[in-house]
Amino acid sequence: MAIMECAALTKRFGAVKALDGVSLAVQPGRVVGLLGPNGSGKTTLIKLANGLLTPTGGELKIMGMKPGSETKALVSYLPDKEYLPEWMNAKQLMDFYGDFYSDFDRERAREMLARLGVDEKRRFKQLSKGTREKVQLILVMSRQAKLYLLDEPIGGVDPATRDFILDTIIRNYNPEAAVVISTHLIADVEQVLDDVIFVREGHVLLQSTVDEIRAREGKSVDQYFREVFKC
Amino acid sequence: MDWTFRADQPIYAQLVEKIKQSIISGALLPGSRLAPVRELAMEAGVNPNTMQRALQELEREGLVYSQRTSGRFVTEDDRVIAMQKETLAKERVRAFLASMAELGFDLPSILSLIKEE
Fold this sequence. Notes:
heterodimer; A: alpha/beta; Rossmann fold; six-stranded mixed beta sheet; three-stranded antiparallel beta sheet; globular; B: mainly alpha; Arc Repressor Mutant, subunit A; 2 domains; 5 helices; elongated
């Protein structure tokens, strides 16, 4: 069964169609890049999958279910902005996550925080911006979820942070789960992706494997994307 | 191993090439055990599915074999390695000849240049 499936999914905000008839499927064991310029509908799609928005038309299912409290137990979501209470330290953040999610693997989180060299007693707001981003990702990836939705996890981070993020995604790879990474910085993530979905102005332009694009076009997905989206 | 990738080819195909080269050059010894897929994937910074596909391709070519419980190993068959070495050498020679032809050299002049070197 597909982990996530959309059929003719549409979302309007007033007169604006943020998503217009999107159909796609995300299979288990895949790392999928959701790629498109700013304003193409990536975040809207991710919010619909989280149940933070409701569709105007069509449907979206997670493991065959409409987004709701059951699917929230299966989906681990990294928003595109900071969302954790700033006054908490890393230990309290782990308690917080453990209280909310029964699938939170505290040992895994501790191990990754230690590797990152984060002192569990420092408050979140005392950490550097890059470290805060890494801590958020660690908490999200420490759940034993079926679907990880990462909204712009590498927007504006330095190369070392980017490597840490990609390494964390590979390290936590689970063949029964899927990872969806939304980004417009394709070159940075291309090596860890199985599949890509190109979105533009609320439409899916293409869904393909990275290998297929490279073999067929003789160029990287990044180069191909720049061609397709040239303005 | 150097894990940078070119843009013009699938990543798995480049992984095959790099690992093959390590086997042929002896950097990976015959009969030696390969690290688990996830570890290799992390080292190369690629997706585990991509690394898996590369290893399966190397298995198909007989350079690597897997044992159900203990993992993947480099072949101990010297003939297979020698054959792959020859194939790779021929490919490179052909590519070299093609690039020299682009510069306008014919075979005798290429040979005399090689002798000079």
